[in-house]
């Protein structure tokens, strides 16, 4: 979707469709009032008929509104003015764009940014709208015969701001939103692709495709023989149970000063998790194709960073493997040696994410990272603890934790911190190895993070458990592309581009 920023006299702006907010009960927003005046009270007359009260998410399309240059006027309900939260604000935009995607309008001019709730700055107000509009353009079609289910998708969206003073921030907001949306769309598509297509090799190819489009992005793939040489016994033990070879995808983006320490993002790329010998129950097992969403988010965040040409050095790392039962697969009780030299007793082969991540986290020491953030659909326990709204955040570094939380809040892609105290570490004790790969029933998300903490002592590190946020289940089943927005926000902040 193409975005433009507009300002000036609303009644005189030519557009196929002008989007106006209406509050409960029948109260016009500022821009709607202006159009009401220009149309000699046309909007007020229609509201008085009672067809549109301003309920959240209601829409009413008007044709031939007198005195204005817009071909159509779309009224969108925003609920009670005092109760307009960021979520409701985004819902109003969702309602408008969903309706327009079903018409032949093709292009619209939206005034909802004027209604942004208190606490949102003009940049954020515009960026949220653009993000919502762009995300609604995503349709999964790769494995459907009918490739274009959106018949007449919106192609251009203009966002109107009342103050000339806000033009620059608004322009920046749509530029950032478009890049984030592209990253989110890529992460969603990779997530939604089935496990028989989206294999470790396929993920590697898609990363390479991205690099071929951008001269400053280089992709390197480590093969199982390379991993063997590096001593990645934990990662290799997982892929041994699969016929698909594991890949360690390394993406290098050199946008910053030569020699400047890179931000390193590590994403779990488990392209299908059957659990291995500790096999999962059949119900909903298909959803374990989403177990590579951490890796997909890393690739998506790199896509966004590269599109924005962020002045930052960045390394994306995606350990990619399947986890299947097989004669060669890990067995409960097996002991493997990780690249760090620490040995691991595999008491449950379904706790495989930490096994492929720990070797990756040791590997990235060589980049002398400014910071490492890993993201993984790591534990069902995280979903039990936090539900499906925030990611779980773990870090021993309070400043870094605050930075990640703030990036998530600002981007509307939130995380919530859980403790990573030493107290939990004893749950990983093993009689036969340096540690077990599971920590018992209590605090499963925390003990998983504690496991990773044993491999991340040499650099500032944060872990995001995205098991609850990476995809939706049920009728709305599909990848969300989270937390690409959080990551991109973090990178915007780190590169000093958030306000430029
Ligand atoms: N990929 C799963 C985690 C998961 C499960 C995410 C369900 C979202 C929904 C991970 O590999 C796993 O199986 N974790 C186990 C760990 C346990 C064996 C300690 C889990 O959460 O059950
Ligand atoms: Mn598992
Ligand atoms: Zn898994």
What hetero molecules are in the model? Answer: ligand BES, manganese (II) ion, zinc ion
Rg on CA atoms, Å: 24 Å
**Strand percent estimate:** 15-25%
What is the CATH H-level superfamily of the largest domain? Zn peptidases
By CATH reckoning, the class of the largest domain would read Alpha Beta
CATH topology of the largest domain: Aminopeptidase
Structural class: alpha/beta
Shape: elongated
Query: Treating each run of at least 4 consecutive H or I residues as one helix, how many helices?
Result: 14
What is the mean pLDDT?
97
Distance between the termini: 22 Å
The assigned CATH architecture of the largest domain is 3-Layer(aba) Sandwich
Q: What is the tally of beta strands?
A: 21
Number of domains: 2
Low-confidence stretches: none
- Regarding quaternary structure, what we see is single chain
């Amino acid at each position: 979707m193409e975005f433009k920023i507009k300002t000036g006299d609303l009644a005189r702006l030519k557009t196929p469709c002008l989007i106006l907010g209406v509050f409960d009960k029948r109260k016009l927003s500022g821009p709607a009032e202006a159009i009401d005046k220009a149309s000699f009270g046309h909007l007020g007359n229609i509201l008085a008929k009672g067809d549109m009260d301003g309920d959240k998410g209601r829409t009413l399309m008007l044709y031939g509104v007198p005195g204005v240059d817009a071909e159509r006027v779309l009224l969108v309900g925003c609920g009670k003015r005092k109760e307009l939260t960021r979520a409701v604000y985004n819902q109003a935009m969702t309602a408008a764009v969903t309706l327009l995607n079903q018409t032949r309008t093709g292009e619209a001019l939206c005034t909802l940014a004027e209604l942004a709730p208190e606490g949102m700055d003009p940049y954020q107000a515009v960026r949220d709208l653009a993000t919502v509009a762009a995300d609604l353009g995503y349709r999964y079609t790769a494995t459907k015969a009918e490739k274009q289910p959106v018949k007449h998708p919106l192609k251009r969206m203009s966002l109107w701001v009342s103050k000339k003073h806000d033009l620059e921030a608004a322009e920046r907001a749509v530029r950032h939103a478009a890049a984030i949306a592209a990253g989110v769309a890529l992460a969603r598509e990779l997530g939604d692709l089935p496990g028989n297509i989206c294999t470790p090799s396929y993920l590697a190819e898609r990363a390479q495709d991205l690099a071929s489009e951008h001269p400053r992005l280089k992709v390197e793939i480590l093969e199982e023989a390379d991993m063997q040489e590096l001593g990645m016994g934990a990662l290799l033990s997982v892929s041994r149970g699969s016929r698909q070879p594991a890949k360690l995808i390394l993406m290098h983006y050199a946008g910053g000063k030569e020699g400047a320490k890179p931000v390193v993002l590590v994403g779990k790329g488990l392209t299908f998790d059957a659990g291995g010998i500790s096999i999962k129950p059949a119900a909903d097992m298909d959803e374990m194709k989403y177990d590579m969403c951490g890796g997909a988010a890393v690739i998506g965040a790199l896509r966004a960073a590269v599109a924005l040409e962020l002045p930052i050095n960045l390394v994306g790392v995606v350990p990619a493997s399947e986890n299947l039962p097989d004669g060669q697969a890990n067995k409960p009780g097996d002991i493997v040696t990780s690249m760090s030299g620490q040995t691991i007793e595999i008491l449950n082969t379904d706790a495989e994410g930490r096994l492929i991540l720990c070797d990756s986290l040791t590997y990235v020491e060589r980049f002398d990272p400014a910071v490492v953030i890993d993201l993984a659909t790591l534990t069902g326990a995280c979903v039990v603890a936090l539900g499906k709204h925030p990611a779980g955040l773990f870090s021993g570094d309070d400043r870094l934790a605050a930075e990640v939380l703030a990036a998530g809040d600002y981007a509307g892609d939130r995380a919530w911190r859980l403790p990573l105290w030493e107290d939990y570490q004893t749950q990983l004790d093993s009689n036969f190895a340096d540690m077990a790969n599971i920590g018992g029933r209590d605090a499963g998300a925390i003990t998983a993070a504690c496991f990773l903490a044993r491999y991340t002592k040499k650099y500032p590190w944060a872990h995001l458990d995205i098991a609850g946020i990476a995809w939706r289940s049920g009728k709305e089943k599909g990848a969300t592309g989270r937390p690409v927005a959080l990551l991109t926000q973090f990178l915007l902040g780190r590169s000093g581009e958030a306000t430029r």
